[in-house]
Amino acid sequence: MSVNDYEEILKYYELHETIGTGGFAKVKLGRHLLTGERVAIKIMDKVTLGDDLPRVKTEIDAMKNLSHQHVCRLYHVIETSKKIFIVLEYCPGGELFDYIVSKDRLSEEEARVFFRQIVSAIAYVHSQGYAHRDLKPENLLIDEEHNLKLIDFGLCAKPKGGLDYRLNTCCGSPAYAAPELIQGKEYIGSEADIWSMGVLLYALLCGFLPFDDDNVMALYRRITRGKYSVPKWLSPSSTLLLNQLLQVDPKKRITVKQLLSHPWLMQGYSDAVQWQSKYPVGHLDEDCVTELSVFHNKSRETISALVSEWNYDQMSATYLLLQSKKARGKRMRLRIPSQTGHASTTQSGSLGPEKATTYEDVPDGSNVPDAFGSMEFSDAASLFEESPLEEFILNTHRTEQHSRHDTQLGDMEFTLSTPVTRKVASKKRANKENVDAESALRNEPPFALPAPKAFSKSQTEKQVEGIPFQAPTSKESQFTTVTPVKKPKAPTNTYELTAAEVLPERRCHSVDLDLNLAHVDSSQKKRKAKLFGSFERGLDKVITMLTPGKKKRFSRQRPRKLKEHYNVTRTQLLNPDQLLNEIISVLSKKQVEYIKKGYTLKCQTKPDFGKETMKFELEVCRLSKNGAVGIRRQRLRGDAWVYKRLVEDILSSCRV
Ligand code: 6BB
């Protein structure tokens, strides 16, 4: 791992906190420097990727070909000798999964709104010859306008002979997999996607899965039999549609074409689902081209030619992000963020409009609370990342480049304080590097808990084909999930500088240096000690640059104030410390390891044979609206349904 790994991405983006660590990728939030637009950045380490490298190639290739209002947009691909960075559309609403969980289940009307969008996305994906093969609510994100965006095309397939050609790779998540797929038969990708859509619709309408079992073989038996419970609240038309989607025989299953104007999808609508892309193809937006041509001091023809290459480089990203800004009615001026008031140097490390005072100067309607409970991102990257040192190195790098940034060492905070130098780099060179990285990517060989049952039988009304249905119990008594509330956007300033490049070393907020070992068990201590060792080595490099700085930024004396969001649960308690202590005692009882960082508990389940480790955060906060004490929850790693049950269990065990 070296500082250079991040040099390229930091030329174009600020890096903020990690919001997810998957099997082989880490997802960070970021901000595109020229447009000030927020993005999600998938970061992969080539060595760690190993056999998963083809998945990344598949994902990039598919996303380059897919351009649709309900498919997450690809902006930029950067490949360095060790890393691959994929810059993607920002979806502050987080996963559809969390949204369903927060509401227990969706009303038929709300489920219809979402399902129409899912049908639209899948009809489009299929029309382009792709099968997604990993449809699930975790792979549908909610954007600023509360619209769904399909993500994760790593398992998608584009059969050479067309989508009617049979596939034989068994992939995806078992609970959403079609019977023919788990039986190891050859299958048609689009038919398998339709089955997964049935599971998805069931999850939307019921809040739990139609086929579920801790034992994978038992789960497969359930799927193969195709029998599921029909809860009492399902309308006859919903039941009928589910039955058409969840047909064990793929030939009897409804097709996506039939779905477009299916009576259930048409209820309350006058038009069939629009599946065609609303994004213009082959035509460039005049205003975006003009802005780029003024900024680069190049002719409109030159810019149009460069954008039309679609190299998914800085040019593509800037064009697409300008376009997205325009579509949201925002001013689309390209400016270099100021050094003085730059978001990188703000205390909170926030990406939110309230704090990003150098970027936004017109209301943009993007003031919906994000999946972190506010527009403010939490302070530091997860302590459980694959390579916590990376976070540190990024900050070390900054100091090597004579920048100024705040960081924290254990309970002490320092300001790295040295003169800031600015480098005016040639855009041409940057562009060329990206094109090279891209072509290098093209030339690569093909990248190819037993949970507590939260449901009681008593609420069952219907039984379908002898399978007893289990409905949720009301365990939520003391907790109320709050609904998002829009808040007017704070006025912000304009850019201050218009130079060609900002130093990359100023752009990373992620700091991962909590070295407090007080609450971790021995294995964790070892891990942390390892981090400490690495940290000390890194520390040697920067210690001379450290000067005692501002008030502590990371070990909070008070809980954060968060806007209301469905990832935030309100409690009746008045004292945040009492709640924190209560959660800590429950975590200890439930054998969940945690690291306390201010009012955030970074939790991890112990590795257990055959079970995936769960990583998640619980943060005691205050709700900005009424000062009530709440808990923000965020899944970082692990199966979404296992997480749901675990967090439900933890929260319901808290005496609040
Ligand atoms: C993406 C995203 C895009 O995230 C852990 C995995 C885009 C995520 C996002 C968010 C919450 C708040 C703000 C932004 C493409 N692929 C993967 C992506 C994966 C993570 C989703 C959350 N759970 N915006 N955001 F999710």
Label this structure with key terms.
656 residues; Phosphorylase Kinase, domain 1; Transferase(Phosphotransferase), domain 1; 19 helices; binds ligand 6BB; five-stranded antiparallel β-sheet
How does this model look, in words?
The protein has 656 residues and is of the alpha+beta class. The protein folds into four domains: 10-90 and 296-379 and 424-431 and 474-503, Phosphorylase Kinase, domain 1, CATH 3.30.200; 96-278 and 434-441, Orthogonal Bundle (Transferase(Phosphotransferase), domain 1); 509-553; 561-653, Kinase associated domain 1, KA1 (TATA-Binding Protein), CATH 3.30.310. 33% of the residues lie in helices and 17% in strands. The strands form seven sheets. Strands 17, 19, 20, 21, 22, 23 and 24 form a seven-stranded mixed sheet that branches. A hairpin with a 2-residue loop joins β11 (405-409) and β12. α5 (108-127) packs antiparallel against α7 and α12 crosses α13 (300-308). The chain is globular, with a radius of gyration of 25 Å. The relative contact order is 0.13. The structure holds ligand 6BB. Ligand 6BB is lined by residues 19-20, 27, 29, 40, 42, 72, 88, 90-92, 94-95, 141, 151, 370-371.
